[in-house]
């Protein structure tokens, strides 16, 4: 996308109004910068992609808090850096918790247990509720959720299947997950 056709402040204003195309434009413009930053930090493509998706998800959720005094790219990278630090802290905490296990036989017995009939029933009921909530989404959001989580397709495979750019698929999926989360929260 050429910068001559891209007005950042206008696009941010549109995003603050919830216009989906603005989110897509921002994602297209800044995906490479944030992903590249994370790839250098994590040295792992999957981790870099996951953190980048989380970065845009958080940024789009908090777009109202963006202050135009700062560069938008810097704001995104700061969010991304903080998410990575949080992830590292969480991993470190889990490792420390694992080393501090005073009763390893309890951990092994938990890991060896297969789901009980009650567990299967609860899972089935939760899945039925989840599917009912997914059906409340618009059809194009239902489709990306279905392809990503039930068909376990990659972003690239979904983009090919739907004949859309991969970044647009990522935005759709972010939006679909956010809307689904709101539906689930409202139904509780």
From TrEMBL:
Family annotation (InterPro entries): RNA_pol_sigma-70-like, RNA_pol_sigma-70_dom, RNA_pol_sigma70_r2, RNA_pol_sigma70_r4_t2, RNA_pol_sigma_r2, RNA_pol_sigma_r3/r4-like, WH-like_DNA-bd_sf
GO terms for biological process, alphabetical: DNA-templated transcription initiation
Molecular function via GO: DNA binding; sigma factor activity
Chain ranges of the RNA polymerase sigma-70 region domain: 28-93
Protein family according to the UniProt entry: Belongs to the sigma-70 factor family. ECF subfamily.
UniProt feature coiled coil, ranges: none
Domain of life: Bacteria
Pfam families xrefs: Sigma70_r2, Sigma70_r4_2
Domain RNA polymerase sigma factor 70 region 4 type: residue ranges: 134-180
UniProt keyword annotations, A-Z: Sigma factor, Transcription, Transcription regulation
Protein name: RNA polymerase subunit sigma-70
